Amino acid sequence: MRRTTLSVLVVALIAALVGVALMPRVPRLGAQTTGDRDLAAAARSATPDPSGLRGLAVALVENGRIRTAGLGDRDLAGRPVEPGTPFEIGSVTKALTGMLLADQVAAGVVGPDDRLGSTWPEVTGPARDVTLAELASHRAGLPRLAPGSPLAWARILWSNVSGGNPYAGQGVDAVRSAADRVSTDDDERGEVHYSNLGPSVLGHALAAKAGVAYPELLHDRLLLPLGMTATIVATRDDELPADRAQGSRAGGRPLDPWAGAGYAPAGAGPWSTAEDLGRLLAATLAGTAPGADAATARYREDDDTRIGYGWFTTRHGDREVVWHNGATGGFRSYVGLERATGRAVVVLGNTDKGVEPIGLRLLGVPPNEADSATSMVLPWIGAGLAVVLTFLGGISLLGTARRRQLDQVTLLAAAIWAFAYLGLGHRLGDWSVVPAWLWPLGAGLSAAGVALAATRWRALPVVDARVPWRRLLSVASSVGTAVLAVVAVAG
């Protein structure tokens, strides 16, 4: 017994030491600086915790003047972020789609109270009765995402595990079909409930009315007049910017960029730069941007926040900030403006760590209020995944290896799951919140389970069950799922 215990401990120690070399490497905002150095210094001062960030692009508008800077690394190769480096902007695009609505209203093409069905006649389901203004302000009673089949949800889950694009293959027809299938919630209609489906439907409806695709409408009506030449909508992978930033999790895991036509008006596919978005904000403050009226608050979300067409307006103490943020797989973005001071800010990051506090601090919002702008729900979910997945497999394997009634197929399945869980913890956990040295401890625990299992292996029957084929089928399905998880981790 002592010899077995000693062997298990030695194996665990060796595995933990190996795990140190393989443990997650959390990025940290690099020292490289480009552009306006004073602005870069201010952005660093506004970043209380650089852990979990790799690079930032920032713009600050003051008295009509636009200053830009790049901080840190744009990719794993260590190339510096520049003010003109393209980043995924995610849901900041919803504000642009809202501006398209305001622009088309001003041009007399549509009215805010026009029904979706009259603007996009191909939509024939219940959603055809919602108004364009309701779609732009998240008040149409539509769900956050389109209702999908189990296969569609499995694809989304797989993309989260593998780091792929959850919107791949979803074109305009998929969004229109979703609008036909979905039923509006009359109890929620008229109230603000954030939706990705609503702005997507709105963008394509406006484009259909104009007889063009959404990227063309956005370019012609908003980007071209403002000189936003670096802002694009990537509907396919071959349209991605060549000099783009590389996105990753705050824990360091690289992620695939998002590209697609269907949810582009809501933020899946658009890329922009701090320079371009600075131009947008400067023109919006001046009232000269096409559809600038979209930033006017019209409807109340709660005591502190109202919404216009895509743009939110939130009170921070005695300050009122008009803003939108964005989040894709490996990027975060924030744009905000304060009419009272004539200041505006852009912050783009290439990890999934929120950048809202940086933007608010640059606008002069007190740190305590600025830091509360990022919800702590998602970071703590990532932290929970890191801890649970890292230790769950090893604990389960040790428990299985100590059972009296045991067979080889059960033990083998438990061993495979131990390392599958360990790999999932490495890839899905938010290691910018949880100490990365916990992962080698989990590796040691899993290795200890394997070592203990090895001491019992020869004495165990292959299958210990009254119905062997049923036991084998159960274990085979479990192992198959674990193998899929390992493939996702390895990919």
Automatic annotation (TrEMBL):
SUPFAM superfamilies in alphabetical order: beta-lactamase/transpeptidase-like
Gene3D superfamilies: DD-peptidase/beta-lactamase superfamily
Record InterPro entries: AmpC-like, Beta-lactam-related, Beta-lactam/transpept-like
Transmembrane segments: 377-399, 406-424, 436-457, 469-490
Domain Beta-lactamase-related: 52-354
Domain of life: Bacteria
Protein name in UniProt: Beta-lactamase
Record key words, sorted: Membrane, Transmembrane, Transmembrane helix
